[in-house]
Design brief:
Blueprint lengths: L3 H15 L2 E6 L5 E4 L2 E2 L3 H5 L4 E2 L8 H11 L19 E2 L2 H23 L8 H22 L1 H8 L3 H6 L8 H12 L1
Antiparallel strand pairs: 1-2, 2-3, 4-5
Length: 187
C-alpha cells in the first residue's frame, strides 16, 4: 500500500497541516479533538486514551478525563479559537508516544480505505498523489470523500490529475491547505 518511509512523510505532512496538540481542544466545528486531528466523538473515546496530568505526569483517571472533556464541551469554538487557546483550560496532556500511535493508526486505516476506494491502482500512484489523497481522506473521512466528491474520484480513477486537482477544493479548511493539495495533484 505504501512504504514505511512514506508513512513517516504522511505523518509529518498531516502534522504540518493539522497541528500536533497534546491537550484536548475543540476544532473549528466544535468537536473535541487531540493530537494530530484525532476526533474524540464521545467521553468514552477520551477515557480510552492514556492522558496524564500536565503538572505531575501521573496517569489521569477516567473521571478526570471525563470532567475535562465535559468542561471543554461548553467552551466557545470556531475560527477565532485556535487549538492553543484551549491550553489554559486543560490540565491533561497526551504523551508524544500516544499521539504517534494514534497517527500511525489513522494512516494505516486511511491507507486501507484509500485502497478500497481506488483499488490496486492506488499502489502505483506517485507519492505526491498519495499525500494529496491522504490529506483528503484525513480531512473528509471515507464516506464524504466517496459520496461528496464523485467527479474528483472519477478523475483519480482515470489518472487525470489536473482535473482531479480542480475538483479537490474543500469547504471549511484553509485556502492554503486547499492550494497545497491542488499543487500535489497537479504536479
Amino acid at each position: 500500500m505504501y512504504q514505511p518511509a512514506l508513512g513517516a512523510v504522511i505523518a509529518q505532512h498531516l502534522e504540518q497541516l493539522e497541528g500536533r496538540i497534546a491537550h484536548m481542544y475543540r476544532d473549528t466545528r466544535g468537536y473535541i479533538t487531540v493530537g494530530v486531528g484525532h476526533l474524540l466523538a464521545t467521553e468514552q473515546d477520551a477515557t480510552a486514551l492514556a492522558f496524564i496530568h500536565r503538572d505531575t505526569g501521573l496517569a489521569a483517571t477516567p473521571d478526570a478525563i471525563r470532567q475535562e472533556y465535559q468542561a471543554l464541551s461548553t467552551r466557545p469554538y470556531g475560527q477565532r479559537h485556535g487549538a492553543s487557546s484551549f491550553a489554559a483550560h486543560t490540565n491533561l496532556r497526551l504523551p508524544d508516544a500516544e499521539i504517534d500511535t494514534l497517527t500511525r493508526l489513522h494512516i494505516d486505516r486511511f491507507g486501507h480505505e484509500l485502497l478500497s476506494l481506488y483499488g490496486p491502482a492506488f499502489d502505483t500512484f506517485t507519492d505526491p498523489i498519495k499525500l494529496a489523497l491522504f490529506d483528503m481522506i484525513f480531512n473528509l473521512g471515507l464516506t464524504k470523500l466517496r459520496r461528496g466528491f464523485p467527479r474528483f474520484n472519477q478523475h483519480i480513477h482515470n489518472r487525470n490529475w489536473t482535473a482531479a486537482a480542480k475538483e479537490s477544493h474543500r469547504l471549511g479548511i484553509s485556502e492554503a491547505r486547499n492550494r497545497h493539495v491542488h499543487n500535489l495533484l497537479s504536479g
